[in-house]
Specification:
By secondary structure, this protein is mainly β. It has one domain (about 20-255). It has strands at about 20, 35-40, 45-50, 60, 65-75, 80-85, 85-90, 90-95, 105-110, 115, 135-140, 155, 165-170, 180-185, 190-200, 215, 230, 235-240, 245-255. Strands 10-13-19-15-16 form a five-stranded antiparallel sheet, with no helix packed on it. Strands 3-9-5-6 form a four-stranded antiparallel sheet, with no helix packed on it. Strands 4-8-7 form a three-stranded antiparallel sheet, with no helix packed on it.
């Protein structure tokens, strides 16, 4: 069934802050695709990284809104491609009570209640010239400013942070399909997409209903409601019955390697 996209809520790209152009370009005149770094791009900020050991299933996040959070599942010596969104409310994020084993939880500064779209900044496939002295670096206290370990930096302009493309909610649902939250990206490659429903008056994943509205993951591979439907370009989540809203988070990261891949030398 074909649905209609939510109403657009596109923000303006701000023309201030720190800009670093690619080698050979003027930062005052270069197009976005010719920038290495622009502080006005909607980069994702990490609030917390938590190691889940299978004994505690809820974690205070310290924010004033329900945040976008991801659980990364370990598998032997590497992390699986599969990852999933986590349930949350204004106080905690929750790991399903049925989950066993260790994992890593990453909580981001993205409000699941705030409907917003950001302008797309086009990028060419580009191999940066390797130069320790080109760009902007801010090292952590006591760390070597020439370190090759990106964890030693507060800011490094050669690190491509994940960017948000859109967060869409029931607030902009199309009247033609009022219980569907849908978004179509127009950036030419399939993106990473995460869906959530806002639950009322029921219990999920071992968390008893206590009058607080919570967001629950609507997984891609689910065989029962709730689920997220996407082909990488069009993404939608339906809500109703035991839920009164939904949110989809669209990241600009490609979900697969494409010819538009951007290579960076750190």
């Amino acid at each position: 069934m074909a649905y209609k996209d939510n109403t657009s809520n596109l923000q303006k790209l701000q023309d201030f802050g720190i800009k670093i152009a690619k080698v050979g370009y003027d930062a005052t005149t270069a197009a976005d695709k010719d920038m290495m770094f622009n502080s006005s791009w909607p980069s994702i900020q990490i609030v917390k990284v938590i190691q889940f050991d299978g004994t505690i299933f809820k974690f205070p996040h310290g924010l004033t809104f329900p945040p976008f959070s991801i659980l990364f599942r370990p598998n032997a010596l590497y992390y699986e491609f599969a990852m999933e969104g986590l349930a949350c409310d204004e106080i905690n994020v929750y790991v399903p009570s049925t989950y066993s084993g260790s994992a890593t939880i990453v909580i981001y500064n993205i409000d699941l209640t705030a409907d917003v779209e950001y302008p797309y900044t086009t990028k060419d496939s580009y191999q940066n010239i390797f130069d320790y002295d080109f760009g902007l670096k801010m090292g952590k206290d006591g760390k070597d400013i020439d370190s090759a370990d990106m964890r030693d930096y507060i800011l490094h302009s050669r690190c491509g942070s994940p960017l948000v493309l859109a967060v869409k909610t029931q607030d902009t649902s199309n009247p033609a399909n009022p219980t569907i939250v849908q978004y179509t990206n127009k950036i030419g490659y399939p993106t990473l997409n995460f869906g959530f429903i806002r639950v009322i008056g029921t219990s999920f994943i071992g968390v008893s209903y206590d009058g607080i509205k919570r967001y629950y993951n609507a997984p891609l591979q689910s065989q029962a409601y709730p689920w997220t439907v996407t082909d990488g370009f069009i993404t939608y989540v339906s809500f109703g019955a035991t839920s009164d809203g939904a949110t989809i988070v669209i990241l600009r990261n490609p979900s697969i390697a494409t010819t538009n891949s951007v290579m960076v030398n750190y």
